[in-house]
Amino acid sequence: MDAEIIAVGSEMLTPERVDTNSLYLTGELNKLGVEVVTKCVIGDDRDRLADAVHRAFSRTGIVILSGGLGPTEDDLTREAVAQALDRKLVFQPEIADALEQRFLLMKRKMAEVNKRQAFIIEGAAILPNDRGTAPGQWVEESHGVVMLLPGPPHELKAMFERQCLPRLVRIVPKQAIRTVFYRVTGMPESDLDQLISPVYKKYENPTTTILAANGDLQIHLRARCATEGQADALLAEVAGPIELLLGDRLYSRNGDPLEVVVGDMLRKHRATVSVAESCTGGMLGERFTTAPGSSDYFVGGFITYSNKMKVELLGVTPEMLAEFGAVSKETAEAMAAGARRRTGSTYALSVTGVAGPDAGGEKVPVGTVYVGLSDAAGTQVAHRQFIGDRQRIRVFTTQMALDMLRRRMAQV
Predict the structure, then answer these.
(1) CA distance 309 to 315
(2) What is the DSSP track for 135-178?
(3) Which of 135, 124, 131, 139 is nearest to 57 (CA)?
């Protein structure tokens, strides 16, 4: 059985509001084996909302609406769903009385407009709301169910857990959804898809999704079967060949980001790391310290944005800078060696480059990056020419540095 989620409210179409309810609902539905196939946001327009509900319910067995159950004129969810299902709205005096008593307990007089919340769709089950004034509604038809839930997250979560989940368990066929979450780096998205598509295209179940973001690629394999065992077996059938094709470009099998994977490797090897950064301005150190427990292995670092700081803090010689420039293999090598010497860390990473948008030239164009890695065996430097805006180049650079360290430790 599939589900669609509709977030209601014109405020949800502004940049100030984020629909977190749909994320929560998706997670809970997936636990039941229900796949969420569509999410949308509809503003405060009854006809548009009614049309969205009608189309969703014509193709999907579960439709959940969040928001639009309040007392004001722009709260139109009840009216729109009644219109979509061709049912009447029925005033429930007992709900109005209960609302009035609630206001009295708060020593407030209930405004007449609050009685709009006492209108229930014909045939609907009332879902009590002990955290707010708007009751939810559960409307069943022969082929599925429509749920009307309040918009405030603390109200929606309590109502869904207490009122909706027990009802869903009774009507949802037993199914299991299992997911494999891989992360890959060091290759373009198009090359990745070309590499693994001959494997995943053989299967409609599991489904395969590839997501790309600044040097980091994610592969989601999602299987839906009658039991968890069947889903796991199906995933293993597809995942095995994909893992072989990816080789050492696959760095995570559980969705952990690269900084967490590298941190775990450092901890396992009882090793430490320091950084010397120029064009990334502290971003590499920030990625290391994002991981909880990073004090186990991250010693610290140097943000040497100027040549003067490179000389005074890392021991890069003025002669080297004059001959090769700040953005060079030689300077990256000296920065990494200097950081390791100054901190006594097992490994040291250095970064120097031109992130742009200005300051590039023919000899050293924008996107030129050098990353150095120093350890007991010596210092190595890698060079890349990235394209994109300043932020993209800087993020790609930190990804490159972390992956360079990951690959080095894998050899130990």
Answers:
(1) 9
(2) -EEEEEETTEEEEEE-SSHHHHHHHIIIIIHHHHHHHSPP-EEE
(3) 139
* Whole-number Å distance between alpha carbons of 262 and 256: 10
What are 259-269's pLDDT values in tens digits?
999 999 999 99
> CA 114, CA 109: separation in Å to the nearest integer?
11
Q: Which two tokens stand for residue 119?
A: 């209108």
Reduced to 3 states, what is the DSSP secondary structure of residue 32? coil
Residue 276 Cα distances to 295, 310, 328, 387, angstroms = 17, 9, 14, 23
Nearest to 242 by CA among 212, 279, 273, 198: 198
Q: What is the pLDDT of residues 123-161, one digit of tens each?
A: 999 999 989 888 999 999 999 999 999 999 999 999 999
The DSSP H or E segment spanning 348 is: strand 347-353
Residues constituting the chain: 412
Output phi, psi for 226, to 5 deg: -70, -30
Residue in 281, 296, 298, 288 with CA at minimum distance from that of residue 260? 288
Tokens of 355: 């992130």
Element (H, E) at 246: helix 228-246
Question: 287: which 2 tokens?
Answer: 């990625």
Return all residues near 101 (Cβ < 8 A) that are at least 6 apart.
none
Question: Looking at this protein, which amino acid is placed at residue 25?
Answer: L
Distances (CA, A) of 228 to 166, 189, 233, 235, 405: 21, 30, 9, 10, 37
pLDDT tens digits along 275-311: 999 999 999 999 999 999 999 999 999 999 999 999 9
CB 149 within 8 A of CB 139: no
Q: Compute the distance between CA of residue 158 and CA of residue 396 in angstroms, rounded to an integer.
A: 41
Q: pTM of this prediction? A: 0.77
Name which of 241, 233, 188, 193 is nearest 215 in CA terms: 188
Q: What is the DSSP string of 84-110?
A: HHT--EEE-HHHHHHHHHHHHHTT-PP
Dihedral of the alpha carbons of 153, 154, 158, 161, in degrees to the nearest 10: 40
Burial of 274 (0-12, 13-18, 19+ CB in 10 A): buried
The one-letter amino acid at 290: T
Q: Are 113 and 71 in contact (CB under 8 A)?
A: yes
* Pair of tokens at residue 107: 């020593």
Tell me the CA distances in angstroms from 234 to 173, 182, 242, 268, one per residue in order.
19, 16, 13, 32
